[in-house]
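User: I'll paste a sequence; please echo it back and then give the predicted structure.

Assistant: Echoing your sequence first, then the prediction.
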Amino acid sequence: MKHSAEGFLDKIKPFGADRNTLEIGCGDGARSHEIAAIFSSLTGIDPDPALIEEANRHNRFENRRFLVGSAEKLGFTDECFELPDNVTLHSENCFK
């Protein structure tokens, strides 16, 4: 069975090589691993600490991390973002 987001994943593939991505609203990280496979690394944020705890508990990859946060207060510098969406590309050294 195909996921409804597969078309979206195909659309972001050209942007992914050698880049890091920020997934806003990652929840428990269930979809994050599919997204992360396209990029060099993934940072997932979600406002729910319990979901972030779950995502971190199941994370076995050094290039993926999950943080409590919200779209309103990302904690990154403005220059980091190149593609506005719930999956956003960012460059190195983006934390304030």
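The chain has a mean pLDDT of 76. The beta strands are 20-24, 41-46, 64-68, 87-90.
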